[in-house]
User: What shape does this take?
Amino acid sequence: MEVPCVRVPPEEGEATRQVLAEADLIADDFEITVAEDWLYVPVTDPEAVPDDLEVVSKDVPERETQTTPADLLEFEPSYERLGDVVLLDEDDPERARELADAVVASDLPVETVLNKASKVKGETRVREWELLAGEDTETVHREYGCEFALDLAEVYFSPRLATERNRVAEQVADGERAFDMFAGVGPFVIPFATRGADCVGVDVNETAITYLRENARRNGVTDRVTAINDDVRAVAPDYADWADRIVMNLPHSADDFLESAVTIAGDDCILHYYDIQHEDDPFGPGEDAIRSVAEPEYEVTVATRRTVRSYAPHELNVCLDVCLER
Assistant: This one.
């Protein structure tokens, strides 16, 4: 049956699929197909496809019906996918057990089901999990063409930020020097390095840095990634005036590290500053904090004010893309 499809080279297939999935544009009733050296992704609304993607009409097979958790439960459950892990956020143990059983019985390609057992806490921002199915909390997650090994019980990682990470990565140019002050397992560092940047990633979590080095190896960018297990405030003097781009993704307390960011910044530097603020003024406090530390040494220009997601009632997770020019 002929349906509208996005046509891309196969090597761009996973990144394209994720972009379309984020926009809820994939037509699940039809198979993603490879033919004549092209990959075809069926879409529900060709008018909504981003302008940089090509839409064509293609005869693709209908997909065989698969059993979903919703089919077994008779309602649409809420969960996240990370690699071969399903993540639940259920306070009721009986409901959590019911959802986990449905996930395991469905046709989802899942090995493990975890339920959140605590909030993110501590300096390393990890949380406790209840293991409802599977053997452990380790997985391999794929995102926009990159592969990340991680252990959810030992490191912080949010699949919800995939689109935001890709937005920033697409700004990176070959030959840049990029510094991630709170690097984790490398969700910013690795895609930056695949685009040709020389990268430094720092984190106080020793396990996260171990995974960052492993992920650099998995993605073939070991020669462009330096991973450091330390407090970035201790590392900053060693990289004074070094960076063309800095990521500060520690929303609750990034302002405590702005002096180190200014130390690391080169003559012309882009700062990606993440913050969580009240919806009445989500950007002002972060911009004021940056100006108070960077001026007058730098001319400060806010290039982008972006709401990343809703964090809590009346609180927003936001990003400021800031140009620092000495």
About this structure: The longest strand covers residues 265-278. Residues 144 and 320 are 22 Å apart (CA to CA).
